Structures are given as structure tokens and as C-alpha cells.
Amino acid sequence: MFKAQNSSSFSLDWINQIPSSIVIIDTDFKLISASPRWQANFELDLNDIEGKYFLDLFPDLSQDFISRLKYSLDGLRDIKFKYNAKDNQYSSKDSVWHLNPWKDGYGNIIGVIIKVEPISKTQEIEIELNRTKLILNQKSSVAKIGSWEFDVLKEELNWTPVVNKIYGLSAKFEPNLEDAISYYTEESREVITKAIFEAINSGIPWNEKAQLKREDGIIIWVNTIGRPKFKDGKCTRIIGTIQHIQNETKPNIEVKDNALIEYPLFEKVPFGLAIIDFSNGNFLDVNNEFAKLTSFEKEHFLGHNFKNFINDTVKNKSTELIDELNEQGCFKPVKFTYTNQKKHNINIKMSGTLVEGTSGIKRVLCTFENITSQTKLERNLKNTITSSREKNEQLLNFAHMVSHNLKTHATNFSLLLNFLNDEAGKIQRNKYMNMLFSASDNLSETIRGLREIVAVKSSINEEKKLLSLNDCLFVVEQNVAGLLKETNGKIINEIPETTQVKALPAYLNSILTNCITNSIKYRCDDKKPIIILSIEENKNYTILSVEDNGLGIDLEKYGNELFGLYKTFHQNKKSRGIGLYITKHQVDAMNGKITVESKPNEGTTFRFHFNKK
């Protein structure tokens, strides 16, 4: 790993032009440089803090932040950290810090780039922050996955509180390697001991299933993963995870009414049935069809409350369903989505009837039907109707567009030809001829634009593919290398290496090319173009952000016309007003969307939402 002095050969002038809040530290955690916005946000002057130990500036940062810095220096990208302003002396606003490795021209990691963004109050960002936190802690206690790290030189073992829970140990227990291994059963102990030896001496990682005897004597199955880390040719530490993958204990099922009602068709009907105790909501019995539907064994449900297995849609209606059972003896069918053991989402229609046993105890007999196929057919029919309506509207709009554009050119040609016919003077006739040639070029440009629009619409039914975003970006960077060199432009890529998007290859290439060339084309005369690419993830979309420091756009004035055909917003002779129009239709064709943030003379950020389906 290269030290800070190796970074001195790199010019960091570009960071002064960055509109974002960015700070750069080296491998010794010393501050190298910071953008003007970062200095303003934290009320710090680069002249006073350059070369200082970063953690001395923020002494209250948790050990969790230091661990994230180390992970970033190991090569992990887009690591997030929540900065709590109230715990620190600088800045009065909470923020999210994005950590990415800083590499030299040879790909060696020479530090960390930290990008600071304000915390959004939207639910999607909260989910993303929580997801990142879970990843960095090697999953959550809900999933029963804990992370650990063993310092080979100091022979010190550290792990997260989740590991204590898996072992059945108190939170105060201080682990060491010998004790940790001793909890495994004899056969598994040999496997783990061998795996650790091979990791340290041969650099071989492991991924093993083993049996662990908890502190309370219960034997459980765990999945343990270890990955050795080397420095100067020697294994200095091992990082890994441990996951509880099987619970051998089974719930004790207390049946209050021994005289269970006999249902002659309970195991013969072609749909799922379940008997639920009306007083407490616990499952008393389920049939085989119900087990097939959920892909779980019957024992997975018996003795457990039905609310543990339904989604929020049904939970929110539970009071209403109980009222219906009390008043009418049954409730109307309820539709909801259920995720079975195979992680497949299936659509269920549930109905229920109140029944009494011979001892007078009330139960609910529920039916569960798999309506996934029916739901898909209904959805496909609605999509077909919607698609047909949209295509008809697009066809009508395109017809109007062709009619209007070509009519304008035809009128222009007709008038010029009439003027030419009536003109006898040679000089004036030459002037009209030049105007006709110009009109011909404009007509060719219009036809070329219309052909591009047709090409977009004709590719809509092509199949999307899972594409490496960095691979596609590499090709585009090669294509615009001349432009970047001519304008002294710079592309800052913060996209994780593993990022993939579902897209049509030609469309993705076109979208990236259009966006990057626009950032260069509409640059400020007094600034070198800087383009920053980063990624966000949520449940439905992979979101590519392309931020520049260019001229920007007055969205209050031009926001409604931004993606219109032949619309331009700057005095640029090369502008055709078709690039954003084509890009918008390409993203729409892939069931995605575009959002824009921009201010005049402060740059623009385009966010391309690539649909994961």
C-alpha cells in the first residue's frame, strides 16, 4: 500500500472546482485536500488543517468510522457513514459520508475520498443507510449473522455483539481465539482449526458449515466464512462472518382443546387450509397443501402466531377482520403477497370462517389459494391495455410532429422557390440559392433526428441485459478521450466495481455518451469540466448520478421543456435539441426515469433510474 508521499505527484487542482463537499485523506489518515464546499460546511480552512491527522479534527468519531476507513483502504467502494453533528464540534447538520478508495494512475490505493451529502428525509435513503450499516456489520442480528476480525500479530480476536448472541454468551464476554474454537463440536473444531492454519500460512479463505455448542448446551449449525489479509507478504489479520443457519429447537405446541374438530376434507382439498385459535391467533393445524404453498414444514407454523407470517397489508386489517368474524361469522377474501421459503413471492387470496369445537372453543378455519397466475394475467392485460394506449398516443404525437416539421420545411422551400423564380438579378438569385442549400441541410437534419426517434421506439421490445456499468463507462470514456483532453476535463468515477444495471446495451452507451458530452459541451468558460459519477440503490432502481460543474439550467424557466424535441437552453451552435429527447425516450423504454437538479452557473446533476426488473 502506498503512503501519502506517493500522492504528491498528483495534481489536486481539480478539487477546487468541485461543487460537491469532498475531502481526501492518505493511508495514514492525514488530510491532503478538501473542496471549498467541504471547508465551508465544516468551517475549516485548508491552510490550517492540510497534513493534519484527520481523526484529530474529529476526535469524537466512533471506532465504527475507523473500521470503515480500513475497509475502504482494502478496496471496498461506496461505504457509507452517518455523521451526527451533535456529537462533534464542527457543523450543525447531520450528513452521510461516502467513502471510496483513492487510487493512483497504476490502480494502487493511496488514500480515501470522502464525499459528504446532507441526509435526505425520504424513506428510500433511510432504507439505503440501514442497508449499508447492515453490510458493514456483516448483516444484522435479525438475520443472525455477525462479523469478526482476528489480529494475527497481536493474537487478538474482536467480534460484533451478534456473535455473542449466536454463542449464547453475555455482552460482556471478551473473546479469544482458543475459547471461540472450543465451542465447536469435536469434528467441527478440527475443520475450523485447519481452515485458520491454511488461511495464515497459505492465504486460503474458507466457507464452511459447522456445528457449534452454545453456552446453554444447545447445538446449532453455523456457516463460518474467513478471508485472510496480507501485508508485505505476511498474513496480518483475518476478517470473516458467522451465521446461524439452522435452529434445532422446535416450539412446544400447547393445544388447549384436545377434542379438535374433525374435517373430513382437511387433507383432500386442492388449496391450503389452516386452523387458527381465535383467542390468541396461534396456528393449531395446517394441511399438506398449505405446507406445499409456503414450502415450509408444518412444524414451522404450529404454535406460532399467524401475524408472524403475513405482511403489513393484512396486519393493518386484522382488527377489521376480527370484527367481521364476530358480527358475520366470516370475513371477505383478502389478497396479499407472501414470500415462501424459496424466497419466491406468491399472491395469496385468504378467506376465513369462525367455527366452534365440541368444548365451545372458537377457531378460525382459513383457506389460502395461490392466485399468482391469475394476478399475472390480470397485470399483463392491464399492461397491454396501457401499452396500447401509450403507443397510440405516441404514434399520434409522432404523426403531428412529422406533419408540423415537414410542413414548415415544405412552406420554406415553396416560398424560396417562388422568390427565386421571380428574381432576375444574379446576385439576389445566388442569395436565394444559398438559402435553399441551407434549408436543404436543415431538412436533412430534421429527417436524421426523426430517424433517431424511430430507432429508439423500434428497439423497445428488445430484451434488457444485466450489464457492468463500469465496463460500459470505460468504452464511453475512450470515445470521448479527445474531448476530455481538449478541454482538460476530468471524470471522477465513484461507481463500485460490482455495479450492474439492467439495460439495452446500445441505449446504455447512448445515455452515458449523451450525458458526458453534454457536460463537456455546456461547460463554463472559466472552469475545467469536472464530471462525477456515483451510484445509489433502492428496492426498485439502480440510480446513476452524473454531476457536473457546468453552465447549469434554469429549471424554473425551462423545466417543462427540458426533454422537449429541438429544445435548447444555451447559445451553442452545435446544439440540435435532440440529445435529451432521445435519452428520455431510451430511459422510458426501459421502464426507468430521469430526475434533474440544476442551478444556473452551479452545475447540473442528472439521476438515471434503471429499473431492476
Layout of helices and strands:
Blueprint: E1 21-26, E2 31-34, H1 36-41, H2 46-49, H3 54-57, H4 63-73, E3 79-83, E4 95-103, E5 109-118, H5 123-136, E6 145-151, E7 156-159, H6 161-167, H7 177-182, H8 186-202, E8 206-213, E9 219-231, E10 234-246, E11 272-277, E12 283-286, H9 288-294, H10 312-315, H11 318-328, E13 330-339, E14 345-356, E15 362-370, H12 372-422, H13 426-458, E16 465-468, H14 469-479, H15 481-487, E17 490-493, E18 500-503, H16 505-521, E19 530-537, E20 541-548, H17 555-558, H18 579-589, E21 593-599, E22 603-611
Parallel strand pairs: 17-19
Antiparallel strand pairs: 1-2, 1-5, 3-4, 4-5, 6-7, 6-10, 8-9, 9-10, 11-12, 11-15, 13-14, 14-15, 16-18, 19-20, 20-22, 21-22
Domain Histidine kinase: 401-613
Keywords: Kinase, Phosphoprotein, Transferase
GO molecular function, one term: protein histidine kinase activity
Question: How would you describe what is shown here?
Answer:
One of its GO terms (molecular function) is protein histidine kinase activity. It catalyses: ATP + protein L-histidine = ADP + protein N-phospho-L-histidine. Pfam families: HATPase_c, PAS_3, PAS_4, PAS_9. Keywords: Kinase, Phosphoprotein, Transferase. The chain has 613 residues and is of the alpha+beta class. The chain contains 18 helices and 22 strands. The strands form five sheets. Strands 2-1-5-4-3 form a five-stranded antiparallel β-sheet. It has a five-stranded antiparallel β-sheet with strand order 7-6-10-9-8. A five-stranded antiparallel β-sheet has the order 12-11-15-14-13. The two termini are 40 Å apart. The N terminus is likely disordered.
